[in-house]
Amino acid sequence: MSEVIVVGAGHWGQNLVRTFAELNALAGVVETDSNLRKQMVEAYPSIPVYADYHDALRSDVKALAIATPAQTHFEIAKAALEAGKDVFVEKPLTLSVRESEQLVQLAGNHDRILMTGHLLLYQPAIQKIKELLVSGTIGQLQGLHQERLKLGRVRSFENVLWSFGVHDLAVFLYLTGEQAPIDIRISGQNVIQPHIVDDIYLHLQFNHNVQAHLHTSWFWPEIRRRLIVTGTEGMLVFDEEGQTLTLYRKGVRKDLSSYDDGAEVVFQSDEKPLTLECMHFIECVHERTQPLSDGHNGLAVVKILEQASKMLEGDLS
Q1: Is residue 150 part of a domain?
Q2: Is the separation of the CB atoms in 230 and 248 below 8 Å?
Q3: Cβ 222 vs Cβ 171: under 8 Å
Q4: Up-side HSE of residue 198: CA atoms within 13 Å toward CB?
Q5: Mean pLDDT along residues 20-30
Q6: N or C end of the chain, less CB within 10 A?
Q7: CATH code at position 223
Q8: Residues 103, 108, 113, 116: is their CA dihedral positive or negative?
Q9: Which is more confidently placed, 1 or 103?
Q10: pTM summary value
């Protein structure tokens, strides 16, 4: 049954439009750009295409999926929640803690679903890593090391941490089982634009001496998307490009000698995380259950982003 209107049919929004259509859940599209609207009308002639999201709010459709520029998320999501709609918001939830807190409170007050588009949480390999951590396959978690690097689409409004690093912070919180780090350190460099950071190194300290490290850049010669998870009894490497999860049975003994008992690919999947994410949103709307990446999860990530950005501004000023 068609029940989701996608707001924003730009670069990423078109993926959401296509996915909800494939799931027979697309009830409409909102797009301010006339050329993109024409494309949507031609591609989906049986659904309404709006120029203004307020028209979508007046419809009887249950839910909105917002894929507009990040600086517009708060305004549109707030209006949708106040109109009684369930809301999916692409990452980041908003660009400030204050705005994210307001959305979480609004969703609670109106008994509405609020879901943040933390896509990597719906990557089957991430779910497998969580399963292996819970089962103790690599012993006690020690560290998380994430690289997300490429010569990417440079933003003029948000820095590379807000643009590239959001999904990885959500994964760090999910795999550690923590709501927030106990310490944050960050360093960065702005090469292309004077006030927009292109390359950052972020270090998070969690309880039980677990540390997480993120290097992300849109000014890099190679594409690197790799997560390394280290434990007391082994290591995991998730190659996002190859969609493989490898278990390394290696480490250091108490006498400080190292051992290497080999490696094996323990998981490989060609499932599409975006399809799984959209299916999860639809299910939450039907069942009235809280999403894995709910508003609180979105808020927790924005808190890290905001604190790290303030620290970065202080270092670069």
Answers
A1: yes
A2: no
A3: no
A4: 14
A5: 97
A6: C
A7: 3.30.360.10
A8: positive
A9: 103
A10: 0.94
